[in-house]
Specification:
The complex is a heterotrimer of chains A (about 180), B (about 725) and C (about 240). Chain A has about 180 residues and is mainly α. Chain A is about 45% helix and about 0% strand. The radius of gyration of chain A is 24 Å and the shape is flat. Chain B is an alpha/beta fold. Classes of the chains: A mainly alpha (about 180), B alpha/beta (about 725), C alpha+beta (about 240).
């Protein structure tokens, strides 16, 4: 008389478990990859070109100097320059169509933090933190790319380098979470 | 055994995988696909991430408080008090705070429409058609037009008055439940009788050391709750932080004011004037120098008996009044809403002349003096006209008569006799849905305007301006009327609402008052500052002490005694005011100060009376008057006379959206249609009988968990 | 780089019960400022209303000498807070910078231990996800996190205003900007019964009241919670109710 196989040794169960693990790991891996890719944008905006011709970040994102938000430029601001410049890219035709219709451009934000974090551009810019410290080297990007390092440890690591007397304040939960 | 995973299971599992990924990475892939739409052209007055503040005026009662609304990227975020405004001085009440929930209410009427009365077919129309409908109505027989407006003394009232004059139509009729509850017409008539000027008097409570309030709920709902609450603060505490002042309230139900008073005297409803007259006589005797003729004929013992206040108490209070440095007597709604209300108001006002220093002053506002005040009498005449078919088109703005008027007045039946009813309501209230057309006006935060402030210590013209772009396809009623007038050829030559408002500002600009908040040489500058500061007012108070003319004063009839089983019934306005804000969830959720109840109606009843009836808090009772009946939960309230029950106004909507409809009961069904001598509704003369229904409906109270465990008090 | 040189603040509040009329304007102001959800009649009846602040009304006396006593009750921002040591996830933590108690929403897993341990009943719990129908969500304050189901919340002393004021003061080099900050309840209070300020500031109007008023007391101070709110009551010419 042989003992019946325990339930976990049935081929079907094992296959099922393996399949489940594969699905979970595969799904997680896929999602990790997806989150690190740039989303589709209405216009393939070439940050690189703009940086190379010497445009300052704050020209298009001026709100960093006086508010928590960086802000996106209005269509008018884009068109202010581009109506003067010869159109060398079909991307500019898309811009022109938005100008004509008066519809806002539906940008997909890349530098997104969860809702319970209140990052403040003003205080960072005022402290002399360069944009590329967080946003990466935009001069190498077309559309803005997500940065891999954005987690709390990374924020705190930088805050801890500001000196011991400041770290009390800069490690306080209420600095970002309220 | 063969492993079978169907396609459906596979999808489920993949979903689980993605969810896991979301947890692992800290943000799910879906959360990234937010779309941000920047301005196509950034407004010059706005900047991303920076709040913009606009000064305007609250429209939720007639006090005219200045507010400042914080807006972020075109959205109205929060209303705050305007620190410069002489009425609010940076402070704010619940109703103005929830103004944004009115603006963004999901139940708003989104565009002009033609509809079948009482529900049924709704047909969207455009504004050209709407203007044509109004224009044709205006072209008809002018005598058969009728305008019914709210009580706010604003630009629309001025425009409609001018329009009615130009057309030869009857002047607009006004009705405001809040003014009815404070007895404003009665107060104005009494002021004319005592001081010779028909105006809302200003009471200097701040510098008084004794204040007697006869039914005036000045901290919650009187002429101007914020302005008088600020006076109460100065009255109550001196600069060194010492408690000062002695406030006595004479009212059958302890109101918020009664709760903050030093002595609450529960007088029998309707006997407030008698008490005032008796105190007047005793105070004059205590002071020496003769009794004024108004109080000479008063029998103190009879007054004590009718009111239930012992003679000793009256004597003590009279001495306090006579010896005070400055004593003030305030005539308020509970005292005036009786058949003898006008006589009571005269007696209470006359009492002020016994004070060592005169606490009463008057700012004469000429436009207001000539304008008809909202009163029940005027509405009654309108109802009679409607019922006899003399009204072909009725225009309604800023008032909800089917809800606010006593049902016994018969407005609903009279409305059925009117061939065409045009409502300008922003919300689907009872009257709007019983109209043929709804031509929605902007809400208060979307529109221009001005409001004359009646209860300030100086002349104030408070400004209104839009803080956001109108959300829906609404149009200012003034613009609709002006466009229709031009179509009808009945010459009012204002191009639009703003032109009309500016024409009314012209006298202020021309007067060039050196004490004015600002001066300007031409209208655009004046207009810009008018909007920027939130209005125009003088920098220093401008009050003329009111001189009482020695008149006889007529005898005050004592209230009729209750019949067996009857109780006095007093309705009172609380945070919900006239009920038009009942569709804002946070005003519903804000607890009542004295009862801590939210979201519903309740009947306040003395513990002994409740025990006699065999009911406890949360039991449902049937309240029946001669004119109607309603059912509501009981709240056993220790601070009310045993022969009186009371109920807040504002609930009991059958319409007005998801948060208001079908909630609580409307005490207006119980009111008698009688008016007092000045034409105000004698709402406090309502007599009711109670019977227990045996049912129970728990109230949502903050003070206990009665609703969970079902335990009685 | 902005210099962080000034000493830490200690925010405090003084509530004058002699002046409080119980009007509840503070309750609504708090709700509108802090994106507090309304919950509806049933939830309020079940005691699940999300009031960060409430006015407690107590009756005293017998008819006709009866009257209410009002006590505005909100998080007392204790120096030794009973809610803090019981939180297993450190969601309820003390802020060394602001000297207040914080609730870190993203750490909170909803054990509700803190609410059980709060002697003031100042904490409320999101039993459900409450949805605000569009377009009413347009009025939500962008400075304050919208909480979701399973999260404990409470009065923050309007910490978003404190942080923004500090940033403004730092970046504009004008420390006075920080002294002007006030909470939504104190801003709305029609009698100025609620006063807010910095207790470390020599010139703060509330400092003397907080520390030395003979009318002052703290609620349940015998528990040793060291609240940041002092209540004032009694004394004076007429000595209260007749």
């Amino acid at each position: 008389m042989t003992r019946p196989k325990p339930w976990y040794k049935h081929g079907g169960i094992i296959t099922g478990i393996v399949l489940l693990l594969l699905i979970l790991i595969g799904g997680a891996a896929a999602a990790l990859v997806f989150t690190q890719q740039s989303p589709d944008q209405p216009i393939q905006f070439p940050h690189r070109t703009h940086v190379l011709i010497g445009a300052q970040c704050q020209y298009c994102h001026p709100a960093v100097a006086f508010s928590a938000e960086a802000g996106l430029p209005s269509t008018d601001k884009c068109w202010g320059c581009h109506q003067q410049i010869e159109r060398q890219s079909e991307q500019l035709d898309i811009l022109a169509s938005y100008v004509e219709s008066g519809e806002p451009i539906p940008w997909v934000p890349v530098a997104l933090l969860p809702d319970f974090i209140h990052f403040n551009h003003l205080t960072h810019v005022d402290s002399g933190i360069a944009c590329e410290t967080c946003h990466g080297d935009v001069s190498q990007m077309t559309v803005a790319e997500p940065q891999t390092r954005w987690n709390m440890g990374w924020c705190l690591e930088c805050h801890s380098r500001t000196g011991e007397e400041n770290f009390v304040r800069l490690s306080d939960c209420a600095t970002c979470h309220y | 055994m063969k492993s079978k995973i169907s396609r459906r299971d596979f999808l489920k599992l993949s979903g689980a995988g993605l969810a896991t990924a979301g947890v692992l990475t800290g943000c799910g892939p879906t959360s990234r696909y937010v779309v941000r739409q920047p301005y196509s052209s950034m407004p010059e007055f706005g900047q991303t991430g920076v709040s913009t503040y606009y000064a305007t005026t609250c429209r939720d009662c007639t006090a005219g408080c200045g507010i400042i609304v914080r807006t972020v990227e075109g959205r109205a975020i929060k209303a705050e008090g305007n620190p410069a405004h002489p009425v609010s001085r940076g402070k704010i009440c619940q109703r103005a705070l929830t103004a944004v929930q009115g603006l963004y209410n999901p139940d708003r009427i989104t565009g002009p429409r033609r509809q079948a009365r009482g529900g049924g077919s709704v047909e969207e129309i455009d504004w050209d058609q709407a203007v044509e409908v109004v224009g044709q109505a205006l072209q008809g027989n002018a005598g058969s037009l009728a305008f019914l407006l709210g009580g706010t003394p604003d630009h629309l009232f001025d425009l409609v008055t001018e329009l009615a004059e130009a057309l030869g139509a009857p002047p607009p009729v006004r009705y405001s439940t809040l003014q009815m509850f404070e007895g404003r017409s009665t107060l104005i008539a009494a002021t004319e009788a005592v001081y010779g000027t028909p105006a809302v008097p200003h009471f200097d409570m701040a510098n008084s050391d004794v204040v007697f309030s006869f039914g005036a709920n000045l901290l919650e709902e009187w002429l101007s709750p914020l302005a008088y609450t600020r006076q109460f603060r100065q009255f109550r505490q001196d600069a060194a932080g010492r408690r000062t002042g002695y406030l006595v309230t004479f009212e059958p139900r302890q109101s918020v004011t009664g709760g903050s008073s030093d002595l609450w005297v529960p007088v029998a409803p309707g006997s407030e004037g008698l008490v005032a007259a008796a105190i007047g006589r005793l105070a004059a005797e205590a002071r020496g120098g003769g009794v004024p003729p108004a109080f000479a004929g008063v029998d103190v013992n009879a007054a004590a008996e009718a009111s239930g206040v012992p003679v000793e108490t009256l004597t003590r209070l009279a001495e306090m009044f006579a010896t005070a440095r400055q004593a003030t007597a305030l005539p308020g709604g509970n005292a005036l809403g009786h058949a003898n209300g006008l006589e009571s108001a005269v007696a209470i006002l006359t009492l002020n002349s016994l004070s060592a220093a005169n606490p009463v002053s008057i700012i004469p506002v000429e436009e207001e003096a000539s304008a008809p005040q909202g009163s029940l009498q005027a509405v009654q005449e309108l109802v009679d006209r409607m019922r006899s078919g003399q009204v072909s088109t009725l225009f309604i703005h800023g008032v909800n008569p089917l809800f606010e008027l006593p049902s016994s007045l018969g407005f609903a039946e009279a409305l059925a006799q009117v061939p065409q009813v045009i409502s300008f309501a922003s919300f689907p209230d009872e009257t709007a849905l019983a109209s043929d057309y709804i031509l929605p006006d902007h809400t208060g935060l979307e529109s221009f305007g001005y409001q004359r402030v009646q209860a300030a210590d100086r002349p104030v013209l408070s400004a209104m301006q839009p803080v956001v772009v109108p959300l829906y396809n609404t149009r200012a009623t003034a613009d609709v009327l002006l466009a229709a007038t031009q179509q009808a050829g009945a010459g009012l030559d204002y191009t639009d609402e703003v032109a009309f408002i500016q024409s009314r500002l012209r006298p202020l600009l021309d007067a060039n008052d050196p004490d004015g908040l600002f001066r300007a040489d031409e209208m655009p500058t004046f207009w810009a500052q008018f909007l920027q500061y939130g209005g125009w007012w003088t920098q220093s108070p401008r009050l003329e002490p009111a001189e009482a003319s020695a008149s006889g004063g007529s005898a005050i009839r004592p209230p009729e005694p209750l019949q067996s089983g009857q109780l006095h019934f007093i309705a009172y306005p609380n945070k919900l005011g006239d009920g038009s804000v009942a569709n804002r969830p946070w005003i519903q959720e804000t607890p009542d100060p004295m009862v801590t109840a939210t979201w519903n109606s309740y009947l306040l009843i003395h513990p002994d009376t409740a025990a006699g009836l065999g009911v406890r808090t949360n039991d449902v009772v049937l309240v029946r008057s001669e004119h109607g009946e309603l059912e509501t939960s009981v709240y056993v309230y220790p601070a009310i006379r045993p022969d009186t029950v009371a109920m807040p106004f504002g609930q009991g909507h059958t319409e007005l959206g998801r948060w208001a409809a079908g909630r609580g009961a409307n005490p207006a069904v119980l009111f008698p249609p009688q008016a007092n001598g000045a034409g105000d509704l004698a709402f406090a003369d309502t007599r009711v009988t109670l019977s227990a229904t045996g049912r129970r409906r728990p109230l949502a109270l903050i003070e206990s968990l009665d609703g969970v465990y079902g335990e009685g008090h | 780089m902005a210099q962080v040189t000034e000493q830490p603040r200690k925010w405090g509040m003084v509530i004058d019960l002699d002046l409080c009329t119980g009007c509840n304007a503070c309750v609504t102001a708090c709700a509108m400022e802090n994106n507090i959800h309304y919950t509806g009649e049933d939830e309020v009846a079940y005691g699940r209303g999300l009031y960060w602040m409430r006015i407690q009304r107590y009756w005293h006396g017998e008819y006709p000498n009866v009257g209410p006593e009002f006590t505005p009750m909100l998080c007392q921002q204790c120096g030794e807070a009973p809610c803090e040591p019981v939180c297993p996830t450190y969601a309820s933590v003390h802020s060394n910078e602001e000297q207040i108690n914080l609730q870190v929403y993203n750490r909170c897993i909803g054990t509700r231990y803190c609410a059980n341990n709060c002697p003031y009943h100042a904490r409320v719990f999101n039993f459900f996800d409450y949805e605000i129908p569009a377009p009413m969500n347009a009025y939500l304050n962008p400075d304050v996190t919208v909480r979701s189901r399973g999260v404990m919340e409470k009065c923050t002393f309007c910490v978003h205003r404190l942080v923004h004021a500090r940033i403004d003061a730092d970046t504009q080099g004008d420390p006075s900007l920080e002294n002007e900050v006030t909470t939504a309840c104190a801003q709305a209070c029609p009698t100025n019964a609620i006063m807010f300020g910095d207790l470390t500031d020599e010139n703060s109007p509330i400092r003397t009241l907080f520390e030395r008023s003979e009318r002052g007391f703290q609620i349940m101070e015998e528990l040793g919670t060291f609240p940041s709110i002092t209540y004032l009551k009694g004394g004076g010419v007429y000595g209260g109710r007749d």
